[in-house]
Amino acid sequence: MTKYMLSAHSGEDRTPPPMSQEDIERVTKQVLALEQEMKEAGVWVFGGRLHAPDTATVVRVSGHEVITTDGPFAEAREHLGGFYVLETDDLDAALAWASKVTSIVGAPIEVRPFADLPGE
Question: Does residue 58 lie in a domain region?
């Protein structure tokens, strides 16, 4: 089994229209049901939704000094809005789950396998 990250990307050009409270509740219910389906299928490892990029703090090293900066890593039109880590038999299975996610959230889903470290 391979672990895959399914990342949902949001961006300026894909800003959804404001949702009614009823729509928010409907989408939330669908997301929670899909997450339960993932757990019951035994593929769920971890997942989460993220706050807006302006809540980020970047930590980097410059010379021998560690510096923190408020805000996103880089100005970008897209940002990571949330993700799932799933463990599936193959890429096709991960893509099938990604299809379900994008159908609910409406955002593009990038699917990437985790790299194995030497000796694992």
Answer: no
Q: What confidence tens digit (pLDDT) does each residue in 18-56 have?
A: 778 898 899 899 999 999 999 999 999 999 988 878 888
For the chain, the residue count is 120
Band (72; pLDDT cuts 50, 70, 90): low
Please say whether the dihedral angle defined by the alpha carbons of residues 52, 78, 7 and 2, taken in this order, is positive or negative: negative
Q: What is the CATH number of the domain that holds 22?
A: 3.30.70.1060
Range of the domain at 25: 2-46+76-113
Are the C-beta atoms of residues 23 and 31 closer than 8 Å to each other? no
Partners of 23 in the β-ladder: none
Q: CA dist 90 to 37, 43, 98, Å?
A: 18, 11, 13
Whether 99 maps to a domain, the answer reads yes
